[in-house]
Amino acid sequence: MSSQDIPEENLPAEQAAHEGAHGAVSVADEKNPFADPGLPPHEHRIQDVDERAARRSERTVALLFTVSMLAAVAFIASYVAIPKDKAIYVFPLGHISALNFALGLTLGLALFCIGAGAVHWARTLMSDVEVADERHAIAADPDTRAKVHADFKLGAQESQLGRRKLIRTTMLGALTLVPLSGIVLLRDLGPLPGDKLRHTLWAKGKRLVNMNTNLPLRPEDVAVGSLTFAMPDGLKETDEDFQTEIAKAALMIVRLQPDNIKDKRELDWSHQGVVAYSKICTHVGCPISLYEQQTHHVLCPCHQSTFDLSDGARVIFGPAGHALPQLRIGVDSEGYLQALGDFEEPVGPAFWERG
C-alpha cells in the first residue's frame, strides 16, 4: 500500500507530532509523589489506515448478521415443518428429537452470529481511541439541589395532580391494569392445572393393588409390622400418564395393632389395624420408603422428615410442614381392600392455592 492511500493524519510523521501529548508522563515531586504514566501511544488498526480492509470488515459483519437472519428463518421453518415425534441419530449424542436439535441449532446459530457480528464491528470499525476522563465529584452543590427540589415541587403543583383526583385515580388504574395484559402471554405455558393437584385416582370402590405383584390386596396379605406399597386398581406402568398419577396416588400400607393407634380418626379410617397413608413426603415430594416397626415411624430418605404412623402420621422431626394425608379404606364384597373415597387434602408438598 502506498502513502497516497493513507490519510495524512494517520501517516507516521503526523502521528509522531501528537504522541508527545498523548503519552506524556508527569514527573513526580514532593507535592505529587505519584507520577501519571499517561496513556501508551495509540496503535492504529489496519482498518483505520486502509479503506479496503475496513470494507472487508464491513462485509464480514454484514455476512454474520445475514446468517443470523437466515438461521432465524430456519428456526421458524423447523418449528412448523418438523414433526415433534421425529428422531434422528447424531454422533455422539445418539438418537435425539429432530425438532429439538433443529431448534437448538438454528437459534444458537442466530444468537451467536449476532454476538460475533457485534464484537467484530466494535473491534475493527468502531473508534478505539483511548480517552482519559478526569474524575470529579458526583454530588451536586447545595444550590443545584435546592433548585431541583424547587422545580419538582413547582412541577407537581402545576400538574394539579393533587387537586384533580379523578385524573389521578384513573391514571393509577390505567398504569395498574395495562401491565396485566401481559398475562395473556401465559396462555402458551399450557392449560391451567385447575384442581388436579387436589385430586388423585383414588375413589370410592377403587381396590388397593400391590405395586410389586400387581395383585389386589386383602387384609390378611398385610402382616403386622410390615410396609407394603400400593396403587389404584387400573393404573398400569405402560400408561402415558403413569408417572404423573403415581406421584399423587402412591400409598404406604402398614398394619398396626388397633391398641397402638393413638389417633381416633386414624382408627376410624383403618380396617382391622391396616392403615393407608400417602407415600409422598409433604416436604418436597420425595417417596417415603423407610419404616421402623418398633416405633411405627416412617422416615423420608431425602431430608429425614419423620412421621408417626400410630398418631395420624404427624411430623415429629424434620422440615416437613404437615402430616401425611390418610386414605380411608375398607373391604369390598370379595374381601379385598378398597378406598372409600379420595384423600381429603392435597397430597405432597404445600402449594400456593392449598386450602
The first-to-last residue Cα distance is: 80 Å
CATH architectural designation of the largest domain:
3-layer Sandwich
CATH superfamily label of the largest domain? Rieske [2Fe-2S] iron-sulphur domain
What overall form do the CA principal axes indicate? Answer: elongated
Strand content: 5-15%
Tally of distinct domains:
2
Q: Could you please say which CATH topology of the largest domain applies here?
A: Rieske Iron-sulfur Protein
Helix content range of the residues, please? 25-40%
Residue runs with pLDDT of under 50 for 5 or more positions:
1-6, 10-23
Task: Return the structural class.
Answer: alpha+beta
Output the CATH class name of the largest domain. Answer: Mainly Beta
The mean pLDDT is 84
Number of strands: 13
Structure description:
By secondary structure, the protein is α+β, with helices and mostly antiparallel strands. It folds into two domains: 3-124, no CATH class; 199-339, Rieske Iron-sulfur Protein. The protein is built from eight helices and 13 strands. It has helices at 12-22, 46-49, 51-81, 98-124, 142-159, 165-177, 242-249, 264-269; strands at residues 87-90, 94-97, 208-210, 227-232, 251-255, 274-278, 290-292, 297-299, 306-308, 314-317, 326-327, 329-331, 337-339. A hairpin with a 3-residue loop joins strand 1 (87-90) and strand 2 (94-97). It is elongated, with a radius of gyration of 37 Å.
